[in-house]
Amino acid sequence: MRRILKLPPLKITPDSCVSSEQNLSNTYKYFGIRQLISHGIFDSCFPLHEKLDYSISNDRVKLRTTWATICKCLKLQPIDLIRSYMGEKVAFYFAAMGSYTIALILPSIVGVIVFIYGVASVTSDRPTSDICGSFGHNTDMCPLCDKTCSFWKLSDSCVYAQISYVFDNVATVIFAILMSIWARGFVEGWKRGQSELQCRWDSIDFHECNEPIRPDFEKQVRSKRKNIKTGRKESHVSIEQKLPKILLSISVVLLMCDPAGCMVELSIQLLIIMVGKQIVNTVIEYGLPFLSSRKLCKNTDENKKQWEIDNQLDVFDWQMLLPEYLEMTIQFGFITLFVAAFPLAPLFALLNNILEIRFDAWKLLTRYRRPVLHKAANIGIWTAILSSISYFAVLTNGAVIAWTSEFIPKLAYQIIEGKGTSLDGYVNWTLSLFPISDYNRTGTMNPNIPSNLTYCRYRDFRESIGPNYNYTSLYWHIIAARLAFMIIFENVIYLIVYLVELMVPDVSSHVQEAIDRQRYSEQSHRDSPPKTPSAQHVIKNHKEHLFLCIEAVSEGTSAPITNFLITIEDRDPKCASLTRILETIFLEAWYPIIVATNSREIKQN
């Protein structure tokens, strides 16, 4: 069976790529190696790894010995070598992770200092001493719930108060302010570093808008929507499909902290996420592949060819980078949004990322097939997401300091009571009285009342005389102070962030100069007439058209359908050099994953 596919004429103009894509998008929509694999015509298609033989020197061996090992975790990553072996898309991920990890060093050091200060000064904190001392032993607190809860002493919360002070002191407030500025500084610094990589890798004007749609995605979408820019209908995920996931995510965030205040609970939650969860994820994500790799090494025959060895490896899917970016973004959110509750979060994030980079490198080099080299201009939407988180971090840090921590009530006590810097009597100032005569009017409380007890205490600013027990004026003064602090805090930090953005442009001066030179050179070449003999010959004899055809010929009647021969042929031998260039363009347009070579016949097995 012989099948010949004749391509439409290609007009050599600046708009040739656009017109060709529009003409072919409908006719050959289902062409491509991905579609052939999804229909079972091919089993797989992947580029080969270089041989992992430590007696020879190749890129894979260099990466394995200098990058994908814990022993080299303190060395900088060979980003250019990663890009050469795995492509820009993978290289940009590791560049972003590396920049983020290096940026975590400074907040990790400051966070440790803040934590040490909290531990060292807890014994000298006056409110904590009052709770753990004689005042706490002599203060009866009201039950915390109906029926089952009983009266308790204030000193029972001594350990809770000590832990709370470690994570809630003046140093943590200063640290939260610095982290709000650091988050924005990191994003601006990454933009500069990203622009340098774009210039070095020639990705400034590259756009990924023409990336083919995955067949699995096309099967899942239920509707199509017209693209405003192109005017064509595209697969679209409706808001009804996204809404349940969005609401679930928002509900988790809203339920994370109780409105009454939960500094210790928030600290415990962050401790579990930043330490416990990361340890479990590391064991699952890298422990199991390590065991399977040991088993694979025992069963590997040294006489096997490289393609047979690679065929046993796991398939690398580009969607695998999505959870890696997501993990980095969530971690960045936790250490910037709630750093006031857990100053050690940057330190644990730093340690996790050092291991994460090396483990990911090890997996890509030894556990997965070699990725097809994909061009990329940046890390995509993740830069905008990180930027949004850095802005939102100012709001959350201001809210945590104002509404969850004790910073504002302590400051109000010192100002209102005229105590200066002293906090003597602060605990007693925050406790309201509740008479025992009104204790069990509803009949739902615990009837066991200590003898000679006339009133109990509870944490609030309310009147001591019923029946309504309204808020006192002091309560509204503190509320006003909290709101005033949030407004001042956010405006001052946003002003500092704005000044940082003005002083630190997204593109450094030397990179911008290189970009301007490159664009000027490209414009000069476009304005000048073509000088190559092949191009002049095409314009003169073919009226700016070049005729080619692609032939797909089966290798015989007995050969399976999974084997066929692709031949690209031109009709004018004088255009050989130009045809080789267009050969790659055509193959990438019709068969996106096939890598064209100078050979006129490419056998796909």
TrEMBL record:
Organism whose genome encodes this protein: Rotaria sordida
Enumerate the spans annotated as Anoctamin dimerisation domain: 28-79
Q: How does it sit in the membrane?
A: Multi-pass membrane protein
Which N-terminal residues, if any, form the signal peptide? Answer: none
Q: State any single GO MF term.
A: protein dimerization activity
UniProt keyword Membrane present = yes
The yes or no answer to whether the keyword Glycoprotein is present is yes
Q: Where is the Anoctamin transmembrane domain?
A: 82-256, 257-518
Q: What is this protein called?
A: Anoctamin
Record's family? Belongs to the anoctamin family.
Q: Which controlled-vocabulary keywords does the entry list?
A: Cell membrane, Glycoprotein, Membrane, Transmembrane, Transmembrane helix
Compartments where located: Cell membrane; Membrane
Its Gene Ontology cellular component terms are: plasma membrane
Provide an example Pfam family for this protein.
Anoctamin
InterPro entries per record: Anoct_dimer, Anoctamin, Anoctamin_TM
Which residue ranges does UniProt annotate as crossing the membrane?
90-120, 163-183, 246-272, 330-355, 376-403, 474-500
